[in-house]
Amino acid sequence: MTQFRLPVFLCFVAAVVVGVIGTTGIAQETEKAGTMKVVFLGDSITQAGAGPTGYVTLVKEALKQRHPDKPIEVIGAGISGHKVPDLQARLQRDVLVHKPNLVVIYIGINDVWHSQSNNGTPKDKYESGLKDIISQIHGVGSRVILCTPTMIGEKTDGSNSLDAMLEEYSEISRNVAKETSVTLLDLRKKMVRELQILNADQAGKGVLTSDGVHLNDAGNEFLKDCMLPTVESVLSGTVLKHVVMFKFKPDTKQADINRVSDGFVELAANVDTVVDFDFGEDNSFEGLNQGYTHCYIVTFKNAADRDAYLPHPAHLEFVKMLAPFIDGALVNDFWAQD
Question: Does residue 28 register a pLDDT over 50?
Answer without folding.
Answer: no
